[in-house]
Design a protein that fits this description.
By secondary structure, the protein is of the alpha/beta class. The protein has eleven helices and twelve strands. The chain has two domains: about 150 residues, D-Maltodextrin-Binding Protein, domain 2 (3-Layer(aba) Sandwich), CATH 3.40.190.10; about 150 residues, 3-Layer(aba) Sandwich (D-Maltodextrin-Binding Protein, domain 2).
Length: about 325
């Protein structure tokens, strides 16, 4: 996708959003019928975060049986457009929402949506276990994505040989957006890359394809206690990556390396709440950013944005 096309796409989406708000007949100043711990709401979220958010919802609803969180998972571009849908109370994505959305929203609703960070996240590159030992620099990865590196033999560290097949989760996903904005920086994504529909499909493809490199959200491979993740770990692995400009060492997308900024392909998991009052959306957001929700983030292999404390009681004698 060229920069010009990308720019025109963003403009068209923003104009559609403004038009939607102007035509809305809903009375946004109505009193909320839900509370922070009861009621029903709909959230639209990036498919990259399905494993983590499924856990957050399960625990929250277990704590509060009268609450029902309906999450619809979509590619990032569709998540941002859901800002314009009145029935959607919150969106969750790695993509930054353009300030024009907030300005249009405020003009119509007379209050600002609330932004919060839920977790420190990363984009992972996965390979078939037959490529064990493979390491890439961010420069090499950018050249793979641009199509100037097409064979494993062109890589410096443990590539072997074979034509590289690059696969993404979805053409409109936040991982594609990250590669375009943070790695390619104006270059065009190779036409040889192709997309599946979900992160899980990417994992299955790489599992069955020796020459494939998959680009996915790290949340799909970061939970070491998840049985499905453990099954995939027998056939695929996360490639270690080195920042070509700022590091001499290669790092896997481990939470410790994400938190310490040593793993280079980092991003933030964001929530945008469209709620003017203390409703279920605010209750769920407070839960995710509170102690229990942040412990779920930690268990899922991502990095909490709020410090999770641990109290240890000691005794002078046994």
């Amino acid at each position: 996708m060229s920069l010009k096309i990308k720019f025109m796409y963003k403009i068209s989406v923003i104009l559609s959003f403004v038009l939607f708000l102007s035509l809305s007949s809903c009375d946004d100043k109505k009193i909320l019928t839900d509370t922070p711990t009861s009621g029903r709401i709909t959230i639209v979220a990036d498919e990259n975060y399905k494993p983590l958010l499924d856990s957050e919802v399960m625990v929250f609803e277990n704590y509060y049986p009268e609450a029902k969180i309906n999450i619809i998972y979509k590619p990032a571009a569709e998540v941002v457009k859901a800002m314009a849908v009145d029935s959607v109370r919150m969106i969750i994505t790695a993509s930054q929402v353009d300030t024009s959305y907030f300005e249009a929203f405020y003009k119509q609703k007379e209050y600002w949506p609330k932004n919060s960070f839920i977790a420190k996240d990363a984009v992972a590159i996965i390979a078939n276990n037959s490529r064990k030992g493979l390491q890439v620099t961010t420069e090499e990865l950018a050249n793979i994505c641009a199509g100037t590196i097409t064979d494993f033999s062109q890589l410096k560290q443990g590539g072997g040989s074979g034509k590289i097949t690059l696969v993404f989760d979805n053409a409109a996903s936040s991982t594609v957006e990250y590669i375009q904005d943070s790695l390619l920086r104006g270059k065009t994504l190779t036409t040889q890359a192709f997309a599946q529909t979900t992160n899980k499909e990417v994992m299955t493809y790489v599992q069955n394809t020796k020459n494939a490199l998959g680009v996915i959200g790290v949340n799909w491979i970061s939970d070491n206690q998840d049985e499905e993740n453990l099954a995939f770990s027998k056939t695929i692995f996360p490639v270690e990556i080195r920042d070509a400009l700022n590091s001499q060492y290669y790092y896997p997308p481990h939470p410790g390396y994400i938190a310490s900024h040593l793993y280079p392909m980092r991003r933030l998991m964001r929530a945008t709440l469209k709620e003017n009052g203390a409703g279920l959306g605010r209750g769920f957001l407070n839960f995710m950013t509170g102690e229990v929700g942040q412990r779920i983030v930690l268990k899922a292999g991502l990095v909490p944005t709020n410090v999770v404390t641990r109290v240890v009681e000691t005794r002078k004698t046994m």
